[in-house]
Amino acid sequence: AQSVTQLGSHVSVSEGALVLLRCNYSSSVPPYLFWYVQYPNQGLQLLLKYTSAATLVKGINGFEAEFKKSETSFHLTKPSAHMSDAAEYFCAVSYNAGNMLTFGGGTRLMVKP
Amino acid sequence: EADIYQTPRYLVIGTGKKITLECSQTMGHDKMYWYQQDPGMELHLIHYSYGVNSTEKGDLSSESTVSRIRTEHFPLTLESARPSHTSQYLCASSESTREQYFGPGTRLTVT
Fold this sequence. Notes:
The complex is a heterodimer. Chain A is mostly beta strands. Chain A is built from no helices and twelve strands. Chain A has strands at residues 3-5, 10-14, 19-21, 24-26, 32-38, 44-50, 56-58, 64-68, 73-78, 87-94, 101-103, 107-112. In chain A, strand 7 (56-58) and strand 8 (64-68) form a beta hairpin. The N and C termini of chain A lie far apart (41 Å). Chain B is mainly β. The A-B interface holds A 32, 34, 36, 41-46, 49, 51, 88, 90, 94, 98-101, 103-106, 108 and B 4, 6, 31, 40-43, 45, 48, 50, 90, 92, 94-95, 97-105, 107.
């Protein structure tokens, strides 16, 4: 069965520092990969997605992620954290035509002033 | 971008009551999903639908039921609410491009 692992349930950075949120997946076939963000008391918003085109994917709000097949990773980065980036981030993977998503456990990003 | 709506956003209800959580989308997506999410926790799929008159149970066992009579509408019903049903419920829809679009969620509290 497919799985997604997000290393670090909580990540804290200072404002202006690099953001790195880690995601690893298990698969023997190329998956579709997604990063979602969830602000308090809201639904999930799509940040970016990988669909086997370019390995470096740019998303909204200055975020990007790089697909590394050899490492089965899809880490999310942002060069400079902003206070408004504080939220819960979910990595997800899709393998089938039914568009079913398997989510990681989530990482709470905290940004210190 | 999909528009997907959930009502109510917040609901506090007593034990034993019947409730229906509404979910509607305006993009004509065939696939729709219900997730349950406890605060600060991961999402668990409880129901999904691939189209009208199609419903399936998800990975997490749930006492709720769903129906899909119209493409745009995917309500979730609890016949007798219990405190263990207290959670956030998220509805989503998708089309051929794989990503799911989420509604704002309904936060349910059963007292």
